[in-house]
Write a structure and sequence with these properties.
CATH topology of the largest domain: Porin
CATH class of the largest domain: Mainly Beta
Number of domains: 3
Helix content: 10-25%
Shape: rod-shaped
Structural class: mainly beta
Distance between the termini: 47 Å
Number of strands: 18
Strand order of the largest sheet: 8-9-10-13-14-16-17-18
Radius of gyration: 35 Å
Largest sheet: 8 strands, antiparallel, barrel
Oligomer: single chain
Order of helices and strands: HEEHHEEEEEEEEEEEHEEEEE
Length: 345
């Protein structure tokens, strides 16, 4: 395959250059005993011929004869064949045209351009790449991202608490915000190990806004406030979290960049930094909003751990986290495992 590909390229260049040489032009002065192929801004390939008969002989040469006359040597280990190289004054060489053939797959590198021919399938596939369009991916990188999601929790039966429970969560308003400093180590093409630390802020906004979470003598209590008009009631907590995930990027695997599917999963562990309950109300007689805050952190678990999953396409990445332990300490509150769904920016 590579011999015929090279022959077609060479003969096309020579035919074009010779035809151009036969036309009168004031822009290019070409001697009668040479064929000049110009490329780029200043590049030239010069083929010296004594007369037209020599040129006709060049066109009629067998491809194997041309290859032998070039004195090309193939690397037996890599299968690479250097067609053109530039020898510098210091004795070093720079490869300009290089061919690699592996069965039915042929790769030709011409300067900063790469031509890949795949004949393994029913149809021949040709792919052309340039250094400008393909950036080399670093083996290790660091980045910052932001999680924005909504919170809920599952009870001991694996169900979302219904509205007849005082701690049932209102979906809209139960926000989760995460600020993460991450690093990614490439293990192989399209396979990464991601790890980092971050701060997570959880809000669990109660659907029953007339119930207030208060700190009892030995456990958290949910008290219904009939003496005021409840406007908003919630529990909030913040954590310092470390996480690690393994990621598969199918776009990178297939040389499609970030246009493919990405999936990642791994564990996380967090240490609680704070926690409180907040109750916003109006007096029954009519007044402005008032706030009542209580430190309920003593009944929240100091440690949280669970699993995180991500799925992304293009620039969009969605995540979900699930705590394997309860939000509250054993015997200090209802058995609830927090779960979050959101998007990564």
């Amino acid at each position: 395959m590579k011999k015929y590909l090279l022959l077609f390229c060479l003969m096309a260049l020579v035919q074009t250059a010779f035809a151009y040489n036969s036309l009168p032009s004031n822009d290019h002065l070409i001697t009668k005993d040479s064929v000049i192929v110009e490329f780029g801004k200043s590049g030239k390939v010069v083929i010296i011929v004594e007369n037209k008969e020599d040129f006709e002989r060049l066109k009629s040469m067998d491809i194997n004869e041309i290859i032998r006359s070039l004195g090309l040597e193939e690397d037996e280990e890599t299968g690479e064949l250097t067609i053109v190289e530039i020898r510098k004054k210091d004795g070093s060489t720079k490869e300009v045209v290089k061919v690699r053939e592996d069965g039915l797959e042929t790769e030709v590198q011409i300067g900063g351009m790469r031509v890949y021919v795949d004949e393994t399938g029913a149809n021949t596939k040709v792919k052309i790449e340039t250094n400008r369009s393909k950036k080399e991916e670093p083996a290790f990188r660091t980045f910052f991202n932001v999680d924005l999601g909504v919170n809920n929790y599952l009870d001991a039966d694996g169900q979302f608490p219904t509205s007849d429970n005082p701690y049932a969560v209102k979906g809209w308003g139960s926000w989760n915000l995460g600020l993460n400093w991450m690093a990614a180590q490439r293990i192989s093409k399209g396979f990464y190990w991601n790890f980092g630390v971050g701060f997570q802020f959880y809000n669990f906004k109660f659907e029953n806004r007339d119930f207030q979470a208060v700190r009892g003598d030995d456990m958290i209590e949910f008290t219904q406030r009939t003496d005021v008009d409840g406007f908003k009631s919630k529990i909030s907590a913040s954590y310092l979290t470390a996480m690690t995930m393994l990621e598969l990027d199918f776009g990178r695997m297939n040389d499609n960049g970030r246009r493919g599917l990405r999936i990642a999963a791994g564990p996380y562990v967090g240490y609680r930094l704070g926690g409180q309950s907040k109750f916003v109300y109006r007096e029954l007689g009519g007044s402005g909003r008032k706030k009542d805050k209580q430190n309920t952190g003593l009944y929240l678990n100091n440690l949280r751990y669970g699993v995180r999953g991500e799925i992304g396409v293009g620039r969009f990445t969605f995540f979900s986290t699930y705590d394997l332990n309860n939000l509250f300490q054993d015997g200090k509150g209802p058995e609830l495992n927090p779960i979050t769904f959101g998007i990564v920016f």
